[in-house]
Amino acid sequence: MKFLVDAQLPKRFANWLNEAGHDALHTLELPRKNRTTDQEVIARAKRDGRIVVSKDADFVQTFLVTGDPSLLLISTGNISNAELEKVLRANLAGIEAAFVSSRFVEITGNALVVHE
After folding, report:
1. How far apart are the C-alpha atoms of 45 and 100, rounded to whole Å?
2. Could you report the per-residue pLDDT of 50-82, keeping only the tens digit for each?
3. Beta strands at 2-5 and 112-115: parallel, antiparallel or unpaired
4. Residue 30: CB partners within 8 Å, gap ≥ 6?
């Protein structure tokens, strides 16, 4: 799977996805780095066939209105990077399976929610 990790998440998040065999970019790797606008993130995700990974509710609103981009929403609240990594690794197989049939998946502190 191909992912584009938004600015509010650590670059390590993209690294974890890459280590798991996925193709992940962080906004820091884009020309405007973390100044990349949401619209630019969406355009890049659509162009490259990437799933946006974000904590930003604005992406949810855009998804609900337009159906784009595919979205992995991180709704864990403020947790340490170590805790975030544990949550990602514990849910990665479920995330992969969920994106087979859905375009909007959410990770909470204790659940994986697949939105229809």
Report:
1. 17
2. 999 999 999 999 999 999 999 999 999 999 999
3. unpaired
4. 36, 40, 44
